[in-house]
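TA notes, week 10

Several of you asked for a full example with nothing omitted. So below is the full record: structure tokens for the whole chain, then the designed sequence directly under it. When grading your own attempts, check the secondary structure regions first.
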């Protein structure tokens, strides 16, 4: 009876098992995805509000620069972060 002292699992089954759990994205990809979602959420929060309490009175706060310029640019930045997170190659 021979004792196998070979500690590394270089059998084909072990290599196949390792490849089975290989993820498409790296940890940095997931961090960038979460950051992109948070940036888009901030953009949507900047866009809300501006309504009037009285339906018979028109509120010009709707045409605020924050809602028309800043919020869409922040949302666009979040989308760009998401694209970068998806396209970034994980380190091998």
């Amino acid at each position: 009876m021979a004792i196998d002292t070979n500690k590394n699992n270089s059998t084909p089954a072990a290599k196949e098992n390792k490849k089975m759990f290989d993820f498409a994205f790296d940890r940095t990809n997931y961090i960038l995805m979460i950051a992109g979602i948070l940036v888009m959420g901030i953009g949507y929060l900047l866009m809300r509000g501006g309504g009037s309490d009285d339906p018979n009175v028109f509120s010009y706060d709707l045409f605020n620069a924050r809602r028309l310029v800043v919020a869409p640019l922040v949302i666009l930045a979040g989308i760009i972060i998401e694209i970068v997170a998806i396209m970034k190659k994980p380190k091998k």
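The chain is about 60% helix and 0% strand. Use that as a sanity check on your answer.
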